UniProtKB/TrEMBL annotation:
Belongs to the PGAP2 family. It is found in: Golgi apparatus membrane. Involved in the fatty acid remodeling steps of GPI-anchor maturation where the unsaturated acyl chain at sn-2 of inositol phosphate is replaced by a saturated stearoyl chain. May catalyze the second step of the fatty acid remodeling, by reacylating a lyso-GPI intermediate at sn-2 of inositol phosphate by a saturated chain. The fatty acid remodeling steps is critical for the integration of GPI-APs into lipid rafts. It is a multi-pass membrane protein. This is Acyltransferase PGAP2. It comes from Albula goreensis. It comes from the Eukaryota. Pfam families: Frag1 (PF10277). Residues 33-253 form the CWH43-like N-terminal domain. One of its GO terms (cellular component) is endoplasmic reticulum membrane. The chain crosses the membrane at residues 33-58, 123-146, 158-177, 198-214, 226-249. One of its GO terms (biological process) is GPI anchor biosynthetic process. Keywords: Golgi apparatus, GPI-anchor biosynthesis, Membrane, Transmembrane, Transmembrane helix.
Length: 267
């Protein structure tokens, strides 16, 4: 009788332990990194396009008004995300977009660490690049959750942090990929480097034109000039998003995976 009870207990233990161990060894979630990176950028893109379209359709006068009180035809990004419901759409999209951006920044840092562990200059640039990527994301969160209608100075400083870190991040990334491209025969890495260079050059050009039109508008208050500034601002943000989409080539074979950590099994 005692022997039968012991055998039954052993059988029950095996039934409980076997499926449990097998389930814990399987990933809970798996997604190609290319889809992950592109979807992250499209969250921000969808939010931006939605806010601009809603502002043009329902809040045209408020979103295109400036202190000069002259006709304009496009809202700036700050104006288009300051109205309701635009501000909530933008905050939702950027809130969902920010966490994956931190993960992408960490993925790039690990990528550079493997490449440049024995190269002091490039390793230092990789650390600075990570700091700029984090600063860019934090600046975007700041200007998102503090609108220009609420506290203009905080919103302005958030924008300055965002654009400064973004430009430095793109410049350092191009420098690092210049070094990678010297020793790489991968067509994906060469394509990525080419697009990074082009998008960085385009972004800098758009920034310069945006600054020029903004100054022109403030100095002379001519009709329509602020529209050119707003359009150039769109190009700055869109080229920045496109720059981040180049992760599609950088991590083409990688996956984002959520799994439980392995545990020692004691029987």
């Amino acid at each position: 009788m005692l022997c039968l009870a012991a055998r039954d207990k052993f059988a029950v233990d095996r039934m409980l332990q076997a499926p449990y161990g097998l389930d814990r060894d399987k990933p809970l979630f798996r997604l190609p990194f290319t889809i992950f990176a592109v979807a992250t950028v499209f969250l921000a893109l969808g939010g931006l396009v939605s806010c601009i379209c809603i502002s043009l359709l329902f809040h045209f006068e408020e979103s295109t008004a400036t202190h000069c009180q002259v006709p304009n035809y496009l809202p700036s990004i700050s104006a288009s995300i300051s109205q309701t419901p635009e501000r909530y759409i933008w905050r939702l999209c950027i809130g969902l977009h920010s966490a994956p951006r931190f993960l992408v920044a960490a993925a790039y840092f690990n990528f550079y660490r493997r490449r440049f562990a024995k190269r002091c200059a490039e390793w230092s640039l990789s650390c600075l690049n990570l700091a700029c990527a984090l600063g860019e994301n934090l600046g975007l969160l700041l200007l998102t959750y503090v609108s220009s209608n609420e506290t203009y100075s905080v919103h302005k400083n958030g924008f300055i942090v965002f654009i400064t870190c973004a430009l430095i991040h793109m410049a350092i990334t191009c420098r690092l990929w210049h070094v990678i491209n010297k020793y790489s025969l991968s067509p994906e890495e060469q394509t990525s480097y080419l697009w990074k260079k082009c998008l960085f050059a385009f972004n800098v050009t758009a920034c310069l034109f945006a600054a020029y039109f903004y100054r022109w508008h403030n100095m002379y208050c001519e009709p329509g000039i602020y529209t050119f500034f707003a359009f150039c601002e769109y190009l700055v943000v869109l080229s920045n998003m496109a720059f981040h989409i180049t992760a599609y080539w950088d991590f083409g074979t990688k996956e984002v995976m959520i799994a439980t950590p392995p545990e020692d099994k004691r029987f």
